[in-house]
Amino acid sequence: MDFKGKTVLITGGTGFLGRALVKEILKQDPHSIRVFSRDEVKHYKLQELFGKNEKIRSLIGDVRDYDRLKKALKGVDIVIHAAALKRLDILEYNVEESIKTNIMGTLNVINACLENNVEKAILVSTDKACSPVNTYGACKFVSERIFTESNYNKGSCKTIFSCVRYGNVLESTGSVIPFFEDKIINGKKIPLTDPRMTRFIISPQEAVQLIFNALTYAVGGEVFIPKLPAFKITDLIEILNEKHNSSNGVELIGLRPGEKIHELMINYAEVPRTYDFKNMYVIKSEIQKYRDNEPVPEYIKEDKRLNEKMLTEYSSEQAVVTKEEVKEIFSKLGLI
């Protein structure tokens, strides 16, 4: 995706992913990057991080506030919607608040994009939206549907809506590595929900590149998913203990409310409309047939549509690599 001369707005842009996006987009000489977030302290920290770069505009606002969003999107070319409430254990007890931000906030983004004739909009979703078993996942599942199906009822508006879907980014806020390392450094036992647990490995750079790829190849209604390795949580604990020359014990605490043992990126119902494309999978919308004169995207031209003989589902359990391979990946990323 070429951002040169473009005006980009990132909701939730002061967060971990938002900062990574700002860093990479700035390299392509955009007209401006509008960082939309309700946290003024994080806005200040972001300004300090980027030396008060004049291309970065700090916009205080909440996706729950449609009027603020509509005003913020005037003259915007590209929207990356990353704002969300995402602490799944807390959201199990705050369902209404999750709905207000993760569903109603997404509707506001859609309508503000249509009102301002935005060129492209990408929703940053989560593996938890695939066959959801918790409040956060259920809300993000609905958000995905809002985004993908908005391509088919937008009238003459030009906006292209698509999604990306992946798990927790390594070293992001609330992710497992900084959480475990804090326990190790402070000499505490490491809480383990289930020794069978597996998780995908995705770096900030890979997350950003997936979003850029979605902006490049989307024609509307897709969900873009990265091809990733996965690790066993028990292997991760051993690697981090070795890194800190520690022998911290493990405390089995059982699954948290709404937690899965394995991450799921593509379920069995999505496989028949999924395409293998470059370093991604691309899921087409279920109702794409109702859209006339849709351009044929690059991922369909390659004609690598999946079927159940190739793949029944795509989960972290199937993608696990050895402990030594995980160490090699982490070493390249500078994590150990």
TrEMBL record:
Gene3D superfamilies associated with the record: NAD(P)-binding Rossmann-like Domain
Domain Polysaccharide biosynthesis protein CapD-like intervals: 8-284
CDD domains: UDP_invert_4-6DH_SDR_e (cd05237)
Taxonomic lineage from the root: Archaea, Methanobacteriati, Methanobacteriota, Methanomada group, Methanococci
Top-level taxon in the UniProt lineage: Archaea
InterPro entries tied to this protein: NAD(P)-bd_dom_sf, Polysac_CapD-like, Polysaccharide_Synthase-Rel
Protein name in UniProt: FlaA1/EpsC-like NDP-sugar epimerase
Entry's family note: Belongs to the polysaccharide synthase family.
